[in-house]
């Protein structure tokens, strides 16, 4: 049986869009990561999608700013990222562990 995930914290619509767009960008950067991707075509498609993801991220932040949401509520948004598997998803952006003793 799969454990039940904790509920998402209460977010404004713009904060939800910010989190969604951020994770979409993280996913695309993870697919582009030269230390993890294995095919140029997949990395190319991810790079193309990154452009629209960056625009969505900018748009969400613009809406937040225009609505007077000047503060980023770090603890709340971090909790939302954890619920949405952000820790695992962001690992693809990093370098994988070294596999050989001579690997710098």
Produce the secondary structure layout.
Elements: H1 13-32, H2 40-66, H3 74-83, H4 86-91
Helix pairs in contact: 1-2
Q: Supply the number of helical segments.
A: 4
Order of helices and strands: HHHH
State the secondary-structure class: mainly alpha
Taking all Cα atoms into account, the compactness measure Rg is 16 Å
Percent strand: under 5%
What is the helical fraction, as a range of percent? 55-70%
Question: Would you write up a description of this structure?
Answer:
The mean pLDDT is 91. The chain is globular. The protein is built from 4 helices and no strands. The N and C termini lie far apart (42 Å). It is mainly α and 104 residues long.
Short descriptors:
single chain, 104 residues, mainly alpha, 0% strand
Brief overview, please?
The protein is mostly helical and 104 residues long. It is built from four helices and no strands. The termini are far apart.
């Amino acid at each position: 049986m799969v454990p039940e995930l904790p509920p998402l914290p209460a977010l404004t619509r713009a904060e939800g869009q910010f989190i969604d767009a951020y994770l979409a960008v993280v996913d695309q950067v993870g697919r582009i990561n030269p230390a993890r991707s294995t095919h140029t075509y997949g990395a190319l498609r991810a790079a193309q999608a990154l452009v629209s993801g960056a625009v969505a991220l900018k748009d969400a932040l613009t809406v937040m700013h225009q609505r007077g949401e000047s503060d980023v509520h770090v603890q709340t948004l971090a909790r939302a990222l954890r619920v949405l598997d952000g820790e695992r998803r962001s690992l693809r952006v990093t370098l994988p562990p070294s596999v050989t003793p001579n690997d710098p």
